[in-house]
Amino acid sequence: MRVSTRVYGEIDIDERQRVSFPSGILGFEKFTEYALLDARQKPFFYLQSLEVPDVAFILIDPFLCRSDYSLDMSDEALAEIGVADPEDAVVFSIVTAPADGSPITANLMGPLIISKSKRRGMQAVLADPRWRVKHDIMAELAVSRK
Amino acid sequence: MLILSRRVNEKIVIGDNVVVSVIEVRGDQVKIGIEAPKSVKVYREEVFEAIQDENRRAAAASLDRLPSIELPK
Fold first, then answer.
1. How does pLDDT run across A30-53, given as a tens digit for each residue?
2. Of A20, A79, A136, B59, whose CB count within 10 A is highest?
């Protein structure tokens, strides 16, 4: 499938890279079809809207930022995206990389959860006060490696 | 918008399976109990808005500025 992307221009993607977000992503509810792409640099990924090339996000594995990261999701919530077994779920955090050079942050409060088998995703809203919308990635890594 | 008055311990029923109760009123703070099926998402508005705003900031930010991270082996 040929798609227009914000970072790579026009590229071909495999069907297996497609992910649907039936309820959208908060603030972007109108868009439900995305592609998960490798970023130019590990361990980052891009979530590219297939409907609007300008809508794209950087993603990272939140467990890399914080080894003590955890999320408690109800089976009902996970069933919405077809996750029956925790092994089937993969979790990402959306990264904000401000152009003005201020710290690059990961949103650990609103993780994206994707069913690997169904390729369907959702954005969760966590109530745990430890997780905020902005965690300075480099600062968290520096702390965790001490 | 529907606006109605309730006293402490009085309830509002929404649809077939959502019940909102006024548990306590103290000054300008109201403690509210919400009984709803797990499939109904209930959030404090500011939490919801914080995530929306952060998503918009993330989408508007740079996609090329990726820090180099040393991955654990």
1. 999 999 999 988 899 999 999 999
2. B59
pTM of the complete model: 0.87
Handedness of CA A102, A112, A56, A46 (dihedral sign): positive
Q: Hey, are the CB atoms on A107 and B62 less than 8 Å from each other? A: no
Chain A CB contacts of B41 below 8 Å: 125
Q: Which pLDDT band holds residue A146 (cuts at 50, 70, 90)?
A: low
Contact pairs from chain A to chain B, CB under 8 Å:
94
Chain A residues with CB under 8 Å of a chain B CB are 6-7, 25-28, 39-44, 46, 55-58, 64, 74, 76-77, 80, 94-99, 104, 107, 109-110, 123, 125, 127, 133-134, 137-138, 141
Instruction: Please give the single-letter amino acid code of residue A104.
Output: I
Which parts of A9-130 fold into alpha helices (H)? 62-65, 75-79
Chain A residues in contact with B42 (beta carbon < 8 A): none
Distance from CA of A1 to the nearest CA of B (A): 22
A110/A14 Cα distance (integer angstroms): 27
Give the pLDDT confidence of B12-59 residue by residue, as tens digits: 999 999 999 999 999 999 999 999 987 787 888 899 999 999 999 999
